[in-house]
Amino acid sequence: MEPLTSRVPMMVIEGNHEIEPQAGGANFTAYKARFAVPSQECSSNSSFYYSFNMGGIHFIMLGAYVNYDKTGMQYAWLKQDLANVDRQVTPWLVASWHPPWYNSYSSHYQEFECMRQEMEDILYKFGVDIVFSGHVHAYERMNRVYNYTLDPCAPLYITVGDGGNIEGIDTEFADDQGKCPKQKENQPEFGGVCHIHFTSGPAKGKFCWDKQPEWSAFRESSFGHGILE
């Protein structure tokens, strides 16, 4: 990354590969040593979650591999940060974290459902416009969705986990015949397990849909990058 980061401003957020458990229980050692983020400038006490303004956008970077409970420090910081946003100055509100909440691929399916249940309400309340995630090695763009229900006031979720990864792309969808993961699979590397069966819609009573979910607008298993303009 050095040839790029030495010439182009870059903001990062931790993912599962940055955990890197060390002797004595230490983790995220390389992440904390190599990347400087504006935590103090946004009143965060951690490099795992922070925010910044760029042009007309307020960016919020959240940590999926540290405590995200409503009773935790990250949630308290997020609530205050969102309350301080001036939409006259930054009319766009964009959030990002590593593992996607909405994902119709078999890989990592419903893996971070616990985080969604803890944090989705507050992002919806404050009108987050777009959410970017990675983790799944493929591209998927959602329709605006809240609690698995189409909602024009909800964020637009985009997974861009394909570009640059060296582990191969994800090609199987959870709605493909025989590809729905078992509930004991896709265990998160942090947090609890909150897998759900859908309570309404075409997939009512099921763990997976039988077709592409209505909240999934477009998905493609390919390498690539995009530019948000």
Automatic annotation (TrEMBL):
Extract the SUPFAM superfamilies matched here: Metallo-dependent phosphatases
Coiled-coil segments, which residues?
none
The organism sits in which domain of life? Eukaryota
Question: What GO molecular function annotations does the UniProt record carry, in alphabetical order?
Answer: acid phosphatase activity
**Keywords, alphabetical:** Glycoprotein, Signal
Q: Which InterPro entries match?
A: Calcineurin-like_PHP, Metallo-depent_PP-like, MPP_PAP, PAPs-like
Domain Calcineurin-like phosphoesterase residues, every copy: 3-139
Q: Which Pfam families match?
A: Metallophos (PF00149)
Tell me the PANTHER family matching this sequence. Answer: ACID PHOSPHATASE RELATED, PURPLE ACID PHOSPHATASE
Recorded protein name is Calcineurin-like phosphoesterase domain-containing protein
Give the organism the record lists: Taxus chinensis (Chinese yew)
